Amino acid sequence: MKAIKRVWEAVFNFFCGDYFVFIGVAVTIILTWCLERVAVWRVLRPVSGAVLVAGIVLSFSWAVSRSLRK
Amino acid sequence: MYWPSVLPAFLASMVEFVEALTIVLAVGVTINWRTSLWGAAAAFTVLALFVAVFGAAIIIYIPIDLLRMMIGIILILFGLQWLKKSVLRYSGVKELHDEAAIYQRKVMALQAAGTAGAKDIFDRLGFLTSFKSVLLEGLEVVFIVITFGSTAGMNKTAGLLSASCGALLALVLVVCAGAAVRRPLTRIPENTLKFIVGIMLVTFGTFWAGEGCGILWPLQDGFLFGLAAIYLAMCAGLTVWLRGRPGESN
User: Is B136:B113 a contact under the CB 8 Å cutoff?
Assistant: First the structure.
């Protein structure tokens, strides 16, 4: 279990390093995918690009402001 | 030659090569060049095997849309990591990245370990230090080459070759500069370079992740400039905000 945790931490720190960015980007991508692919949500398809960019900007701003509290 | 793969791969790889070279030079100067170069050569061999196995597998088996989405997400995360450091450094919250200071710290650490000065003897610590740094930074270069190469354009092989050319050019330039000065490449403004590359990574990442989801961007590839402008404005805004905070003026 410890080995798995270490591997996960190494991989995570290599690619991302910040859980706030990770969560924010993951939620944004899922939301964007739903806007593009799920039939009921597709009415909002014209704004999916804006949602993606806004989600990334917000996630990043959130992570930067959080890092000040450390 | 596919230029949207060459340029970002070249710039991003250059950042990694400069970091690796700093350590290789520190080991070479303080221990000996034989140990340092053997460590770097061993790391290059491991990296070549890694590319041979995973590079081919990615090209053959994974559909382009899925690859674009996955790589796009990773590029966004990877790029935001660099941008966050850059914004915190520009605003004075974090100390500026100084290759000269890193070089001095590494030299002092090696001297403290009692390994400095042995000019001809193969040194295990020196080998591992050089190997580790080249392997880690090289892995980042491999990742950059595979992502920019395999997701840009419709022909993955041509894209991968173009990105490899960009990375190879960066390697040649950095090694030549390193051989000429034989000290950390402090003249290359690494913080600025890292910031620019961070913007590029997030821009391309957003573009490809969006395409992978199914988004048809207005102006197609031309929208990359719009995305870059948005992220530049975001970083500028955050830097100004951080500088304006009480106790953070720097």
Answer: no
Contact check, Cβ <8 Å, A52/B215: yes
Say if A18 is an interface residue toward chain B (CB within 8 Å).
yes
- What ipTM score was computed for the predicted complex, to two decimals? 0.90
Among the listed residues B191, B233, B201, B206, the one whose alpha carbon sits nearest the alpha carbon of residue B78: B201
Q: How far is CA B39 from CA A66, B17, B43, B135, B181, in A?
A: 39, 15, 6, 9, 21
**CA-only gyration radius of chain A, Å:** 15
Residues 6+ apart with CB under 8 A from A32: A48, A51, A52, A55, B209, B210, B213, B215
Q: Which two tokens stand for residue B226?
A: 């719009």
Contact A25 B76 (CB under 8 A): yes
Q: How many other C-beta atoms can be found within 10 angstroms of the C-beta atom of residue B196?
A: 19
DSSP annotation of B121:
S
Q: Do A36 and B213 touch (CB under 8 A)?
A: yes
d(Cα B84, Cα B86) in Å, to the nearest integer? 5
Place of tokens 């739903």: A34
In chain A, whose CA is at the least distance from the CA of B203?
A53
Single-letter code of the amino acid located at B238: L
Q: Tens digits of per-residue pLDDT, A28-60? A: 999 999 999 888 888 888 999 999 999 999 999
pLDDT tens-digit profile of B186-223?
555 667 777 887 887 888 889 889 988 889 999 877 88
